[in-house]
Amino acid sequence: MPLTAIIVEDEANSREILSNYLAKYCPDVSLAGEAASIEEAKELIGKYTVDLVFLDVEMPFGTGFDFLDQMPERTFETVFVTAYNQYAIEALNNHAAYYLMKPINIDELINAVAYVREIRKKEDALEDQVLKPKLNKVDGKISLPQQDGFQVLNVSDILYCKADDNYTEIYLVNKKILVSKTLKYFEAALSEFPFARIHKSYLVNVNEVVKYKKGKGGSVVVSNGKELLVSAAKKKELLAYF
Questions:
Q1: What is the DSSP-derived secondary structure letter of residue 95?
Q2: Omega of the bond prior to 103 within 30 degrees of 0, cis?
Q3: Domain assignment of residue 190, yes or no
Q4: Which residues are paired to 227 by β-bridges?
Q5: Do 9 and 101 reside in the same domain of the chain?
Q6: What is the pLDDT of residues 124-151, one digit of tens each?
Q7: Quick one: pLDDT at residue 137?
Q8: H helices of the chain, where?
Q9: Using CA atoms, how far apart are residues 73 and 117, in angstroms rounded to an integer?
């Protein structure tokens, strides 16, 4: 699968080295352009549809993290390329796909590109398509505690669960049930079934997902037409079902 990439790096020599490595060892990566600053990078993002950004951390007039902060709806994956290892945790918190240290190890570069390619392949296969999960049957029941006792539901009737402080809203096809348990409780209770925690606020029945839309984390549409956000940190967990 071909990938379109840009390099965001203020040092011309570093841009040239990475560009040469990509041409020689990652021929399926098409380089759309190079940027020496955040503003130049934003111009390239506005001009091209980019799958992958190779991003330096320390640059004049801002950092790579500043650039990402200005791209809240980003649809590209990020590979940090830096000489400093102290930014690794912050890169992880910004949902980087990979963290490369300078001087660049060629095997690590190849691994980074392969990892991003796998993510994009799954996203492209899922985007705006009817989804067919590996597990298309949900057997079992769950009891919902209530003031006067409990209610028993077929697990397959649950579309998704939404956190509401210390309560959880259980969404069925035609109604909603409010239960005085946290979403974490239901995540554990439904762990044997194909339910994915896609966001701090959502636990979704994977069999009810009918569309996926790309983005920083993206979003899913469930069978009743409701669109739910997917956090970037949970995207990999969701894609593993398909």
A1: T
A2: yes
A3: yes
A4: 221
A5: yes
A6: 776 656 565 655 566 788 888 777 778 8
A7: 61
A8: 12-25, 38-47, 64-69, 88-93, 106-126, 183-189, 235-239
A9: 20
Any idea of the CA torsion for 116, 122, 123, 125, to the nearest 10 degrees? 140
CA distance 104 to 18: 8
Plot region of 95 (φ>0 → left; ψ -120 to 50 → alpha; else → beta): left
Other Cβ atoms closer than 10 A to 13: 8
Q: How many domains does the chain have?
A: 2
Beta strands in 182-241 (DSSP E): 195-199, 202-205, 209-213, 219-222, 227-229
Residues 120 and 145 occupy one common structural domain:
no
Residue 135 lies in a domain: no
**116 and 212 share a domain?**
no
Structure token pair of residue 136: 């298309």
pTM exceeding 0.70: no
